[in-house]
Amino acid sequence: GYARGAAAEPAPALDAALSAPGEYETVLTTEQLQAWVARAEAAELIAFDTETDALDAMRANLVGISLAVEPGKAAYIPVGHDYPGAPAQLPRGQVLDALRPLLENPDKKKLGQHGKYDLHVLRRHGVDVKGYHDDTMLESFVLNSTATRHDMDSLAMRYLGYTTIKFEDVAGKGAKQIPFSQVGLDEASRYAAEDADITLRLHRVLHPQLLESASLDNVYRSIEMPLVPVLARIEANGVYIDSAELRRQSQDLGARMLAAQQKATELAGRTFSLDSPKQLQAVLFDELKLPALVKTPKGQPSTNEEALEAIAEQHELPRVILEYRGLAKLRSTYTDKLPEMVNPDTGRVHTSYHQSGAATGRLSSSDPNLQNIPIRTEDGRRIRRAFVAPPGHKLLACDYSQIELRIMAHLSEDPGLVRAFEQGVDVHRATAAEVFSRALDEVTPNERRAAKAINFGLMYGMSAFGLARNLGIDRGQAQDYVALYFSRYPGVRDFMERMRQQARDQGYVETLEGRRLYLNDIHARNQGLRAGAERAAINAPMQGTAADIIKRAMVKVDDWLQGQGGRARMILQVHDELVFETESEFLETLRSQVVELMSSSAQLRVPLVVDAGVGDNWDEAH
């Protein structure tokens, strides 16, 4: 939905040129190509887009390139349409040679929509794009991460009131879909040239809106845009996978799934499929008569994780089912899947990072999703063991220690919290000492655990009820803990109230760098939605600031690595951690440099501490 507040007003009256149909040219002759290169040379900003035959940027072949230099005027240069009777097209090599000086010139500003994809495709076809200056997906994302989806069709509708030609319209859908190389040139040109044209028009609307806020423009210009080529390099680097190790893990998981299945059969007194919610319902609620505490939207007893957790105390079976599901998920998502994802040309797995994936500014990843490998369990850590360094190399993993709590200390300026970090004491132990009135060395492991739950719980806006459930204590006791905590750390309480108030007044909260998160539900009538928005108001400044800091660090580290002759490469980013693959002899140089660059990526009131680990695989290094 649309955000309230700033974003709810209708789009400004549009310059008619920005929503009128465009005039597009299909470039089939050398003269046309030269004329377009000359136009692009003369332009201040060049919008470009590639058409390919596959979604995977690391495997796709180039089918054509489109260019636009003024709204409403664009060209498509086809190089790979090979359907029967397709008109003759310029050779791919000739087209790329003609465009290369333009695309590789850092002083010629380029514009794209999700251009990281196009950078990959062109690099693999021998063109190393420089001067990638603007990206409409990121302009939209920084402007308002929740106002709309950030794909081109959604943006054109929201910001231009323009209905674009969809990929399905030209290529068909589902099983009948044809590759773009089979699409007729007339349709292909209209579709592809429109992409470049609309990107340019969107930029004309979005860019002035960004410039109205110095802080948003700063987030866009100094964090998001410089990150695009960095992420493209990390993705292209990829990571080695030990497929034999994963096969062993799959076999082990399979054996344990079978054991869980047998145990479940025994507990239920009959065989049933653990993968069928319907059969589960019958066993748990009809036969074992367990209470159905959680309902599906249709009012059926639910068998999701929450529902099974709710009755896990009352019978052994729900726990067995949860264990089975955990094993099955690891197996299908990682141990069986990762070996199939190895790119045949590079022998590595190449994840995709999404800059506009999470509203708070955090990166997300897919194919494989690295953020979701469970880290608390032995099985999750085993999966990390399969991410390995090639011979003669090591993996170095560097991560920020308790960065969100440190940001909370910085933003709240709470003297007690700031002092704990300045003195370098264990912050959870220090919190326990305060809350339970103990000397530091008298804190028991259980008290530290409680303090840790409070520290992290509060940051995520957790209620006393949530804390009680987490610690297995009653609600009254949890309420007392929270009250005690706030009496010891009044700065934290005031900060949290300030954030809620700011969200109510402005409709958004900000990170340290000025990235905004609009909270659409802060005035919702529904109390649950409103409480969710209040929790986000407290958490987003911390999560978002942490995201800004690691993004800045990635740009700095990448910049330094570019001058090191390929002795080390950045290969993964997960949450607050960066992972590198390095020649063994280069390890110490890399370690000291990365720790220095990461810890100086923000100036906080408390030190930014970076932990570094080394190993032959990711688990050892972590």
Summarize the structure.
The protein has 24 helices and 16 strands. It is an alpha+beta fold. The chain folds into 4 domains: 208 residues, Ribonuclease H-like superfamily/Ribonuclease H (Nucleotidyltransferase, domain 5, 2-Layer Sandwich); 98 residues, Taq DNA Polymerase, Chain T, domain 4, CATH 1.20.1060; 125 residues, Alpha-Beta Plaits (2-Layer Sandwich); 141 residues, Orthogonal Bundle (DNA polymerase, domain 1), CATH 1.10.150.
CATH architecture of the largest domain: 2-Layer Sandwich
Helix proportion: 40-55%
By CATH reckoning, the class of the largest domain would read: Alpha Beta
Oligomeric state of the chains in view: single chain
Please count the beta strands (DSSP E, at least 2 residues each): 16
Taking all residues together, what is the mean pLDDT?
92
CATH topology of the largest domain: Nucleotidyltransferase, domain 5
Number of helices: 24
Strand portion: 5-15%
Query: What structural class do the secondary elements suggest?
Result: alpha+beta
Any idea what the radius of gyration is? 27 Å
Q: Biggest β-sheet: count, sense, barrel? A: 6 strands, mixed
The CATH homologous superfamily of the largest domain? Ribonuclease H-like superfamily/Ribonuclease H
Uncertain runs: 1-11
Strand arrangement, major sheet: 1-4-3-2-5-6
Instruction: Give the N-to-C terminal Cα separation.
Output: 39 Å
Gross morphology: globular
Count of discrete domains: 4
